[in-house]
């Protein structure tokens, strides 16, 4: 009998369309096969002759620079034998020279980019494109990122568009954002970041390590990561943070140049990190907190300094951001005691260093709620962001020296309206209850006490850049009490706008002073109006009022505060960021010495952009999309640009509009060719010298 000719592989088919459909990876715009771990995929091998029992056939998967069996970076899989790393392959069917195999990776396999070779005896076959991307798998029960709810997976893993909530607690608005995790080069950019992270292979098994590494790499601090942060107000040599409408351009540019992209602020970092985590297969959502504390000392206190006119001073180390955006990622925490699985906060905005790098999280959201702030990672910082107290100090010159007088403490002000986009619909979902118990509840008090036992308690001393050289206030310096007593007069302040806040019009504001205790009360009221960045940094002082009011309790009165357009329009058009209007009021009751401070930030209101297009369109058939904007303001909008992007429809496009006069209507059209099925969104944003924040989105369904 002639010896068998040696077995050779003549071809291999990775059955991309079937495998990617089953693995929910058919969206990725990439040549290679993308699959999720812990779930079988099929491979068709063509051989030089029929496979015999004695033949040796092995699929070899390798990862990294220098793959070796003993390091787990080279897996050699033989049919019907479970490999030591939890991978296995089996023969599904043989048909002459064709052999159909199924490969199941371990649900705990390192994520990344694998190369597939086939070994038969001493022959090794290297396919043309044998690269396989292996991702986390929220559909697999044994994966640490497993998520049971189908609608949630559709939102938190597969949705490539979304909404980031910004503004202020007084008026929250939505900023549409294209995550675009399936776009060209985005997955490659994520793989590049994984390699750059220097995580070991075994660290790549655990989503907690990967999430922490990505929170460090999405900012450019320490490691030449993706986005360079800047809050300077001038963005020469880069793109202003307000001008991005999605992550795609940023990640594509980064992958091409391997250099940080300029510039980002918190929503940009959160948008990009959300893209990266969804792209790698970890369920992820953008989370916005309003009145978020940036507490540098972990003493659960943020000091705010006011002058005699009630104007905020920029002298504090701490700050309260009107809003701050971070991310929650979903996973089991194998490294922690039971009870801390589920959502974990991660934050790539460079605020404070953690273990020597600008990274933050994953911190279990449940640990924040329960006050277990000793748990890794960075739970003290996240806890303070949503739970600190705001302490107001009045700075007065006494004999030429600054003296500090405590005006009051706001205990329920920080960490309000914690928001994310709802699953499957375009509305804001309030998730404050996941982060904290109701203010004043028994559970909240217990959680606060627990947290305080791990944080250093602080005496109430002012702490500004100058405080150390000053004499501190005498009087009641006491550790923080959970709640301050109510004033004797039942004094209450409310700040509102009486007319819409349109740029170019006077700002018509009002402070309502209310007393609920019977009696005749004399109240000194100081009010100020300022423009500030969302980070709490004051940009301009617009005006102040000082009045003495007599009130017969119980009653209330409204004191107007009016700012002329000339007082603020220059500032508005000279900065490249969106600024907020902030009103601060101080009331002092003469008879009882009661003091109260109240602060409210508001956003300018803008005319809308209208998008006109059909509700449905057919794949690869052109349709026209028109963007219409009418300048209903009393000011010229200078240097207008319209930015538009539609994932699966058209690439990011910019229209230069020049100046738009008051009352003028502008219209731009774009011819669209849809390349993907399903519901797609078009995002449009208008920016000008005067206005930074007008954006809108519209959905269209693409059918076959």
UniProtKB/TrEMBL annotation:
Cofactor or coenzyme needed: Ca(2+)
* Limits of the Transglutaminase-like domain: 258-350
According to the record, cofactor stoichiometry and binding are noted as: Binds 1 Ca(2+) ion per subunit.
Keyword terms, alphabetized: Acyltransferase, Calcium, Metal-binding, Transferase
Which lineage? Eukaryota, Metazoa, Chordata, Craniata, Vertebrata
Write down the top EC class of this protein.
transferase
GO terms of molecular function = metal ion binding; protein-glutamine gamma-glutamyltransferase activity
Per the UniProt record, the source organism is Alaudala cheleensis (Asian short-toed lark)
Q: Which residues form the active site?
A: 266, 324, 347
Cleavable signal peptide: none
Q: Which residues bind Ca(2+)?
A: 387, 389, 439, 444
InterPro entries, A to Z: Ig-like_fold (IPR013783), Ig_E-set (IPR014756), Papain-like_cys_pep_sf (IPR038765), Transglutaminase (IPR050779), Transglutaminase-like (IPR002931), Transglutaminase-like_sf (IPR036985), Transglutaminase_animal (IPR023608), Transglutaminase_AS (IPR013808)
**Which Enzyme Commission numbers does its entry carry?**
2.3.2.13
Write down what this protein is called.
protein-glutamine gamma-glutamyltransferase
The record's similarity note reads: Belongs to the transglutaminase superfamily. Transglutaminase family.
């Amino acid at each position: 009998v002639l010896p068998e000719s040696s077995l050779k592989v003549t071809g291999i088919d990775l059955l991309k369309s079937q495998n990617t459909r089953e693995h929910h990876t058919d969206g990725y715009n990439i040549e290679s096969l993308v699959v999720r771990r812990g779930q079988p995929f099929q491979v068709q091998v063509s051989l030089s002759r029929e496979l015999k029992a004695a033949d040796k056939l092995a699929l070899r998967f390798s990862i990294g620079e220098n793959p070796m069996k003993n390091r787990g970076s080279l897996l050699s899989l033989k049919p019907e034998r479970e490999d030591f790393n939890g991978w296995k392959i089996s023969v599904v069917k043989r048909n002459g020279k064709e052999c159909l195999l199924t490969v199941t990776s371990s649900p705990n396999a390192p994520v990344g980019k694998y190369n597939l070779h086939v070994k038969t005896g001493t022959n090794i076959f290297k396919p043309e494109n044998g690269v396989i991307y292996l991702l986390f798998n929220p559909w697999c029960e044994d994966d640490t990122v497993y998520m049971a709810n189908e609608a949630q997976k559709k939102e938190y893993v597969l949705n490539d568009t979304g909404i980031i909530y910004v503004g202020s607690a007084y008026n929250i608005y939505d900023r549409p954002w294209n995550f675009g995790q399936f776009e060209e080069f985005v997955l490659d950019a994520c793989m590049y970041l994984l390699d750059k992270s220097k995580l070991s292979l075994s660290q790549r098994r655990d989503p907690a390590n990967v999430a922490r590494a990505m929170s460090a790499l999405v900012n450019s601090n320490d490691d030449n990561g993706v986005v360079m942060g800047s809050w300077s107000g001038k963005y020469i040599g880069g793109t202003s943070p307000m001008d991005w409408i999605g992550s795609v351009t940023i990640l594509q540019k980064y992958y091409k140049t391997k250099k940080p992209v300029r510039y980002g602020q918190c929503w940009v970092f959160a948008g990009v990190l959300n893209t990266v985590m969804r792209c790698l297969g970890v369920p992820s959502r953008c989370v916005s907190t309003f009145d978020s504390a940036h507490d540098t000392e972990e003493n659960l206190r943020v000091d705010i300094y006011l002058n005699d006119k009630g104007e905020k001073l920029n002298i504090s180390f701490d700050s309260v951001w009107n809003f701050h955006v971070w991310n929650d990622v979903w996973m089991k925490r194998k490294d922690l005691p039971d009870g801390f699985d589920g959502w974990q906060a991660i934050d790539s905005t460079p605020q404070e260093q953690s273990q020597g790098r600008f990274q933050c999280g994953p911190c279990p959201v449940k640990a924040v709620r329960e006050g277990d702030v000793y748990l890794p990672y960075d739970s003290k910082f996240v806890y303070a962001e949503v739970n600190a107290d705001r302490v107001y100090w009045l700075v007065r010159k006494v004999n030429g020296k600054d003296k500090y007088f405590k005006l009051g403490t706001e205990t329920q002000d920080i960490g309000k309206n914690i928001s994310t986009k709802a699953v499957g619909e375009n509305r804001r979902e309030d998730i404050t209850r996941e982060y904290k118990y109701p203010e004043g509840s028994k559970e909240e008090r217990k959680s606060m006490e627990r947290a305080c036992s791990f944080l250093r308690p602080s005496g109430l001393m002012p702490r500004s850049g100058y405080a150390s050289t000053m004499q501190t206030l005498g009087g009641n310096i006491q550790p923080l009490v959970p709640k301050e007593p109510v004033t004797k007069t039942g004094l209450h302040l409310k700040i509102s706008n009486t007319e819409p806040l349109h740029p170019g019009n006077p700002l018509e504001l009002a402070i309502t002073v209310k007393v609920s205790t019977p009696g005749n009360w004399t109240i000194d009221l100081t009010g100020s109006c300022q423009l500030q960045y969302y980070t709490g940094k004051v940009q301009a002082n617009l005006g102040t009022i000082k009045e003495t009011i007599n009130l017969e309790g119980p009653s209330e009165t409204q004191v107007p505060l009016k700012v002329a357009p000339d007082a603020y329009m220059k500032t508005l058009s000279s900065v490249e960021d969106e600024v907020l209007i902030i009103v601060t009021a101080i009331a002092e009751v003469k008879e009882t010495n009661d003091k109260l401070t109240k602060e409210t930030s508001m956003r300018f209101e803008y005319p809308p952009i209208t998008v006109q297009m059909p509700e449905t369109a057919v794949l690869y058939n052109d349709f026209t999309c028109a963007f219409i904007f009418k300048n209903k303001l009393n000011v010229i909008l200078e240097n207008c640009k319209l930015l538009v992007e539609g994932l699966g429809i058209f690439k990011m496009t910019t229209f230069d509009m020049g100046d738009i006069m008051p009352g003028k209507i502008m219209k731009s059209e774009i011819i669209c060719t849809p390349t993907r099925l399903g519901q797609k969104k078009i995002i449009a944003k208008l920016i000008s010298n005067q206005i930074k924040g007008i954006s809108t989105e519209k959905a269209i369904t693409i059918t076959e």
